[in-house]
Amino acid sequence: MSNNAATIEKTDVVLIGAGIMSATLGALLRQVQPDWSISVFERLDAAAAESSDPWNNAGTGHSALCELNYTPRAADGSVEIAKAIDINERFQVSRQFWSYSVENNVLANPSNFINPIPHVSFTHGADGVEYLRKRHEALSRHPLFEGMEYIADKDEFSRRLPLMAKGRDFSDPVALNWTDYGTDIDFGELTKELLAYLGRSGGDIAFGHEVKNLTKQSDGSWLVKVRNLRTGKSRVINAKFVFVGAGGGALPLLQKSGIKEIAGFGGFPVSGLFLRCKNPELIARHEAKVYGQASVGAPPMSVPHLDTRVINGERGLLFGPYAGWTPKFLKDGKNTDLFKSVRPNNLFSMLGVGVTEMSLVQYLVSELLKSQSGRVEVMEEFLPRAEGKDWDLIIAGQRVQVIRRKGAGGVLELGTAVVAAEDGTIAGLLGASPGASTCVSAMLDVMKRCFPSEFASWEPKLKEMVPSLGVKLSENKALFNEVWDWSQKALHLDAANTPEHSGVASHA
Ligand SMILES: Cc1cc2nc3c(=O)[nH]c(=O)nc-3n(C[C@H](O)[C@H](O)[C@H](O)COP(=O)(O)OP(=O)(O)OC[C@H]3O[C@@H](n4cnc5c(N)ncnc54)[C@H](O)[C@@H]3O)c2cc1C
User: How many whole angstroms separate alpha carbon 310 and alpha carbon 502?
Assistant: First the structure.
């Protein structure tokens, strides 16, 4: 198809991918700029079918209450909490936007997508116990983490985590950092509801449409070439702004756009596997998201956790993740994805990582060699009486870890990176962690960087949606208390709404 004027459709904004990131950006933009036309293109036939699907991620509302990789040990033995504060602050931004959205009919019943579940850190052995004692000491006096408990008593451990206590040898000391107000989130449902809002407020959402190419025009706009995968026909859309919310597919598309900001970036795919419990009795006896410590040499995203899930109103339980490996950048991707992403401008970054990340490679190889009984053995650290028959192996989403140029080589990063062109006409999100929980702050960042002149005029509306915008809640306790109370109520997260009390069914 030629790109002649007659066949070119025009829109203000193209969002590539129907995952939580595009859905969030679409919902934000719709409210600050209702007159803009917005088109979403998704290659699959449904929203949130890649990483944002509830069983493709762990659904943890990451706020550093339980994830030990955000509270590393300092050289002097103390516990550093700066990263934890940052993640928690960003999660508060998401909570506020979701609360506003519930109160303003953007989102429906909050229990469809967010539910209260205790967040718990778990260690054992004298060293691990001491670490959690110090972590509790450092965090519990901080306003964002008030109420966190330290538990090292085996009877209390057994009362709170009966499944983890069964058959445990308590001569190996255990400790917990326990916070009642953690959350489980169904990011798939959240994505669908945000996109439904975008659709009913005039957005155009095309499923089964794959974006093939992006070409910059002399006026700064973009020609977006899209293929309808059902009919094989192509469409060309002229957009003033493009957001590449394609998850693992973002790197190749940003490379195709040719923007200089993507030079040097590469991606390293790691797939995740979970064990999903199919025994209703076990599911009913555990109610917490319990995060342990990564084993030596393993990357932070491999931290094992035993997770209560609430999906479609039903309780579930998963353990993992175990790492898998394929060269695909999406779960539904191609085996050529990794190879095709290697460019002259990122070759040295990628080779550099190949040399420096030998421990990751060794870890992946050991994970790939694990059998079902090997996986159950790993789970025994959490569930000493685990039995393989109670668990099914499921394949989770694909993560593409960011490789960034550093010196003559490259570094592997475990976070997310917003890559935006200098002129603000295109932006995309790379990486997977802390991921969906911080989608609102990530998308506000995109808006600020790409629309500097509009952003000031958007601020009053944005502050209605996120009252703490521009303020550090960790330094403003009164505002934190205010937005916390508001979001607890708006999102139905107070005690009366825990799954136990709200009659959520317990299912395999
Ligand atoms: C194992 C695992 C566990 C995780 N656990 C958590 C957790 O507990 N808490 C948390 O907050 N986060 C977690 N995450 C991260 C979180 O899932 C992701 O950060 C988030 O879902 C990414 O959303 P996204 O919209 O960027 O991408 P996705 O949800 O992957 O959506 C991208 C969409 O783009 C589409 N697409 C790709 N290429 C094209 C193209 N060319 N044209 C059209 N469409 C295209 C894809 O089909 C897909 O639907 C986890 C991730 C994994 C893999």
Answer: 12
Rounded CA-CA distance 442/267 in Å is: 19
Average pLDDT in the 241-260 region? 97
Name the token pair of 205: 């959402």
pLDDT in tens, 450-475: 999 999 999 999 999 999 999 999 99
Instruction: Determine if residue 431 is left, alpha or beta; phi over 0 gives left, psi from -120 to 50 gives alpha, anything else beta.
Output: left
Six-digit token string for 303: 């931290």
| pLDDT at site 122 | 98
Residue 439 main-chain phi, psi, to 5 deg: -60, -35
Closest to 174 in 3D by CA, of 132, 203, 134: 132
- Each residue of 263-315: pLDDT tens digit? 999 998 988 899 999 999 999 999 999 999 987 666 666 789 999 999 999 99
Ligand 1 neighbours (beta carbon < 6 A): 16-22, 41-44, 48-52, 57-60, 62, 187, 210-211, 245-247, 249, 253, 272, 321, 330, 396-397, 399, 429, 432, 434-437
Residue 260, C-beta contacts closer than 8 angstroms, at least 6 positions apart? 421, 422
pTM to 2 decimal places: 0.94
What is the sign, positive or negative, of the torsion defined by CA atoms of 27, 32, 35, 41? negative
Compute the distance between CA of residue 24 and CA of residue 30 in angstroms, rounded to an integer.
10
Q: Which two tokens stand for residue 48?
A: 């949130």
User: In whole angstroms, what separates CA 396 from the centre of its chain?
Assistant: 13
